[in-house]
């Protein structure tokens, strides 16, 4: 009999542990490492403190520099493509697209970290259900929990199987909606995406715009997440509506081009819909990707460079042109640096911005045959970023490529947009010859996803070694 030890789905139901949340809501002394269930779910402020703990864990270290927090998931995807070039040190194996075996840290972390947070969200959702909170509080707080649960299941779906559109019935990681001492069998993408969509739909229907801060989920965040999910599922009409609702439908009112060069280090940036704040007493220090790895002015590692072929697609008048020649004078892959991200111990982490929503709406319009509508949105964004921009007359595949390039130009370094798009559209990635490691990812290449961790196979009676056959 296998012994279940995996942190992803084990937690004593009678005691809730969390870090990074304030304890000033407690009326009586409690153990320093645990808070009783009755205290957490006895009031709205207790539940909100628990949510704060979940979000603190989302940016805290889990294992090591390249395996800690949502940002490390995103950054591993970022450097698997062609637009950025990795020099050395952390994330080297991700850059080589050779970090997917069952015993590797990337594979283990990308499985255990989402399940750890999913376990917390299940505790949250189920605890709220049986609490004495008002019905209004129950619905709203559960909606936050379900949105977070959906977000982490979406990460698992991205990491451990090819895209939904290729085969909805392909095997996917197990699903848990309750605390469990038994490992569940593998699911399918269809089953996992149904839960994701159900959770996010509930969140959209039951959340408003108010929230405690930008690290918390509100209706805009929930809509943004739903738009991303629908984009992967190729539900273009759903993606269009959700994306437009996420940013409000007014392009210029939702953008602040002058803030683009502020260093992507401050969650108060008006374009940020969702982010993770850093404070001096809760800093990730030099672990903070992407800023610690990209910023050449205030460097920590400074080992990520920009592909010259990519930087050359930006005009001089584009506010997003944050590139500079390496002052060392090198002309190899280290030639171009970016100052998009400013590194400091309290640099905040971006998770979602309004330009992504605008470009998702534009793509969704294009996919549904509304090319004039897609061009109008695309030009509105381009003109906001570059006052010298000229409206495109492209149609068909040329317009599609223009939209996808604009996504890369707008969001490089943030969440792995190049990898995300190549994967969902089954397009592959071909690196140019100036890369330190030149490679090609074919459409639906196995390197777009990871193998199931050996730790899970050893611990779960319902999964055996055959799960990794032909992966």
Automatic annotation (TrEMBL):
InterPro entries, per the entry: SusD-like_N, SusD_RagB_dom, TPR-like_helical_dom_sf
Domain SusD-like N-terminal: residue ranges: 78-231
Entry-linked Pfam families: SusD-like_3, SusD_RagB
Entry keywords, A to Z: Cell outer membrane, Membrane, Signal
Major localisation: membrane
Gene3D superfamilies: 1.25.40.390
Subcellular location: Cell outer membrane
Source organism superkingdom: Bacteria
One cellular-component annotation, GO: cell outer membrane
Signal sequence extent: none
RagB/SusD domain mapped to chain residues: 347-463
Family: Belongs to the SusD family.
Name used for this protein in its record: RagB/SusD family nutrient uptake outer membrane protein
Taxonomic source organism: Gelidibacter salicanalis
């Amino acid at each position: 009999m296998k012994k279940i030890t995996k942190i992803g789905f084990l937690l004593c139901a009678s005691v809730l542990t969390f870090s990074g949340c304030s304890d000033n809501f407690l009326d009586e002394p409690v153990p320093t490492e645990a808070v009783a269930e009755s205290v957490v779910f006895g009031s709205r402020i207790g539940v909100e403190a628990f949510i704060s703990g979940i979000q603190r864990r989302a940016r805290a270290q889990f294992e090591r520099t390249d395996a800690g927090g949502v940002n490390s998931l995103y950054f591993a995807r970022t450097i698997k493509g062609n637009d950025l070039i990795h020099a050395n040190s952390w994330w080297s194996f991700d850059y080589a697209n050779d970090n997917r075996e069952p015993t590797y840290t990337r594979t283990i972390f990308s499985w255990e970290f989402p399940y750890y947070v999913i376990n917390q969200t299940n505790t949250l959702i189920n605890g709220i259900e049986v609490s004495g909170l008002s019905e209004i509080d129950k619905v709203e707080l559960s909606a936050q929990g379900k949105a977070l649960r959906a977000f982490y299941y979406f990460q698992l779906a991205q990491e451990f199987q090819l895209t939904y559109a290729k085969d909805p019935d392909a095997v996917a990681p197990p699903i848990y909606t309750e605390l469990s001492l038994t490992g569940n069998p593998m699911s399918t993408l269809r089953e996992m995406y149904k839960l994701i969509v159900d959770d996010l739909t509930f969140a959209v229907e039951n959340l408003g715009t108010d929230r405690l801060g930008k690290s918390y989920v509100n209706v805009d965040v929930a809509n943004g997440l739903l738009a991303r999910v629908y984009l992967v599922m190729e539900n273009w009409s759903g993606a269009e509506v959700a994306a437009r609702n996420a940013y409000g439908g007014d392009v210029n009112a939702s953008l602040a081009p002058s803030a683009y060069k502020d260093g992507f280090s401050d969650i108060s940036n008006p374009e940020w819909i969702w982010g993770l704040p850093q404070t001096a007493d809760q800093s990730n220090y030099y672990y903070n990707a992407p800023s610690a790895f990209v910023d050449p002015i205030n460097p920590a590692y400074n080992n990520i460079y920009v592909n010259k072929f990519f930087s050359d697609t930006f005009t001089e008048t584009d506010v997003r042109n944050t590139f500079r020649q390496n002052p060392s004078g090198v002309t190899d892959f280290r030639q171009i640096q970016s100052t998009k991200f400013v590194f400091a111990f309290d640099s905040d982490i971006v998770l979602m911005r309004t330009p992504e929503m605008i470009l998702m709406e534009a793509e969704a319009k294009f996919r549904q045959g509304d090319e004039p509508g897609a061009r109008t949105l695309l030009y509105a964004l381009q003109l906001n970023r570059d006052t010298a921009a000229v409206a495109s007359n492209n149609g068909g595949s040329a317009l599609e490529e223009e939209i996808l390039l604009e996504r890369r130009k707008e969001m490089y370094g943030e969440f792995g947009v190049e990898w995300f798009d190549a994967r969902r559209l089954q397009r592959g990635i071909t690196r140019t010859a100036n890369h330190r490691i030149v490679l090609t990812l074919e459409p639906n290449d196995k390197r777009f996803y990871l193998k199931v961790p050996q730790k899970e196979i050893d611990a779960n009676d319902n999964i055996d070694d055959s799960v990794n056959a032909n992966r």
